[in-house]
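Dear U.,

Please find below the material for section 3 of the report. The protein was modelled together with calcium ion; I have listed the sequence and SMILES used, followed by the predicted complex structure.
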Amino acid sequence: MMSPTIAQHPIKPRRVWLDTDIMIGMKDETPREVDDAIALIMALDQPDKIELVGISTITYASYAYEVTRKLLTWYNKTGKVIPVYRGSDTANDAGTENEATRALANALRAEKMPILAIGPVTNIATVVKNHPELVSQIEEVVVCAGRTPGLPFKPGLETLSVGDYNFEMDPESFRILFDAGLNIVLSGYECSIYTFLGKTDVDFLNNTNESDKWLYDQLRPWQQFNEKLFGVDGFVPWDTTPLGYLTHPDYFRYYNDIPVRINVGPNDAGPGNKPYLEVSYDYTDTNWRATYAYKTLPGFEEIVIDSMKRASKSQ
Ligand SMILES: [Ca+2]
């Protein structure tokens, strides 16, 4: 009897550099964004798919450093030390070296790899600007930013517009990356917006385990704050979709090799004008190109929740 033979090639995890503006739990007037933390926990939960070579922080760099180390203590089950480096505090000083840019440059000298950049891209731009010889060592940069022309960013009940945060914090650094001709993957608002974590999705964290409880105590206020702002009790874990491009690419739909431009126009989320990072096959006057994720397919949200449950159970 014939039986299909399935070759058992062990697939090596992809070695990736993570640059993050993680700010979960930062003491402030309002709760702070939690999505970087969820992306980090998910990455640590999938050592078969992704291996973090190093982590650099961007904005609130010292807080980000401390909270990343805390999360690594709880969730890094790989047995490998993942070094963490403090990057730019301001996200407006592309070209100024820091601990993170020096470490990233060294890592790129040693090996070619992709960069998962889930905050403003200042650290990456510094490496590209100061070390153009390393550009060919960057396989791709996966970022959470960009939009199709005219797409409003209106989460929840669509009463309030928000900005394209990572891009608007430091448009100049995006310009540096596109000018360098890097492979850039834009996985931002449009493909993330229907992935939604509500109260019942995180209830399992409300227990006596130290790490679960800490996480729950940051996620729950963030959900409630989102209800105040956008009318719905829950949040979109934005940064999990750029991670998903690396771990579960089949769950997204992409516009490949699409032209990219920075267009300046009236600010849809405040006064004055602002730059927009936009993609369209109609743009014929630009050399910038990207892979643009425009849609998440059903099932990705389940992957996010399952991953968090596994991370929790393995305590
Ligand atoms: Ca982020």
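For the text of the report, you could mention the following: Residues 197 and 235 are 5 Å apart (CA to CA).

Regards,
Y.
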